[in-house]
Specification:
By secondary structure, this protein is α/β, with parallel strands linked by helices. It folds into two domains: 166 residues, 3-Layer(aba) Sandwich (Rossmann fold); 131 residues, 3-Layer(aba) Sandwich (Rossmann fold), CATH 3.40.50. Helices cover 40% and strands 22% of the residues.
Length: 321
């Protein structure tokens, strides 16, 4: 696998907010006393009139953002995903989503990448509890550049948006020319199954840092004569139904891979859709009904089976069934 420069995903969030604040006076950035961690301290320094530190008060931050949205502003709420999706869920549900307000939610430090901070800070349930909310859009980018593009896209996208990104530096596998569109899965490698006539043994849908692991898995499978189409399913809601149906029709098995609980995550969303529209043999890679623990991100990825070999093994096992 090609070597890529590793950059923290939160840098992409900060860079996008700088661009948005420079271009649009309506953009406001709110933070819950973790500005250095979320990179919103960059906004505080460069555009102080666009920044508001709410302190350790996630519920108040979302409520304040809701008022801003009602006044025509575009507020971005920024804090750790586990606190935003957890502590402020009632305000997000009843104030933001029920009223379909134009509030953007930046869930930083999500997944296992918080490492040694342990289970209390590792958001492994946030996608599930965000995607169940009516009117909510859920986006899980794969690297810092895609995080930047997703943040810019969220600002222009109507209604509530939850952006999920990790803390750790991860390889930047996209580039400036890589297309990003909310609601449309990005073809990464292997056959492009949207094209009539193209087929594959397996279709792998991944998001977040698991996209790179999926690409490595596809290379391993190719060396064994197994063709795998890899897609970056960055938007968990709304799903790219066209891509999923094309994969179900053109591949023997579908594998999903995510840095999240298996229950209720991206794999669950894919399964829910395909079980009704086009049933197909599936395998899902993720955290299996467990809290995380303290350790380096690499150690935790190994422990919880979030590696290319786990994805490849899932595809092999399903194909050999």
């Amino acid at each position: 696998m090609k070597e890529y420069k590793a950059v923290p995903m939160r840098d992409g969030y900060g860079n996008a907010l700088l661009k948005l604040c420079a271009a649009d006076p309506k953009v406001m950035v709110l933070d819950a006393d973790v500005a250095k961690s979320t990179r919103t301290d960059w906004i505080k320094k460069e555009y102080p009139d666009h920044f508001l530190d709410m302190g350790i008060s996630e519920q108040d931050m979302v409520g304040t953002a809701s008022g801003m949205a009602l006044g025509g502003l575009i507020p971005f709420c920024s804090t750790y995903g586990v606190f935003l999706a957890g502590r402020a869920w009632d305000q997000i549900r009843t104030t933001v989503c029920y009223n379909n307000l134009n509030v953007k939610l930046g869930g930083a430090h999500a997944g296992l990448s918080v490492g040694r901070d342990g289970a209390t800070h590792q958001a492994l349930e946030d996608v599930a509890i965000m995607r169940v909310l009516p009117n909510m859009t859920v986006v899980v980018p794969c690297d810092s550049l895609e995080t930047e593009k997703a943040t810019l896209a969220a600002a222009a996208y109507p209604g509530p948006v939850y952006l999920r990104f990790g803390r750790e530096a991860v390889p930047v596998i996209t580039d400036e020319d890589t297309e990003f569109e909310i609601g449309r899965a990005r073809h990464v490698s292997g056959p492009e199954l949207r094209n009539a006539g193209e087929i594959a043994d397996a279709a792998i849908f991944a998001n977040g840092p698991m996209v790179r692991e999926a690409a490595i898995a596809a290379e391993k499978l190719a060396a064994e004569g197994i063709t795998a189409a890899v897609y970056d399913l960055h938007t968990v809601k709304p799903l790219d139904e066209e891509a999923l149906l094309a994969a179900a029709e053109s591949a023997k098995v579908i594998v999903t891979a995510e840095e999240h609980q298996l229950a209720g995550g991206m794999g669950g969303a894919v399964s829910e859709f395909l079980s009704v529209r086009h049933p197909v043999l599936m395998r899902m890679i993720g955290v299996d009904d467990s809290f995380g623990e303290s350790g380096s991100p690499d150690q935790l990825y190994d422990k919880y089976g979030l590696r290319a070999e786990n994805i490849a093994a899932a595809a092999r096992g399903a194909l050999g069934r």
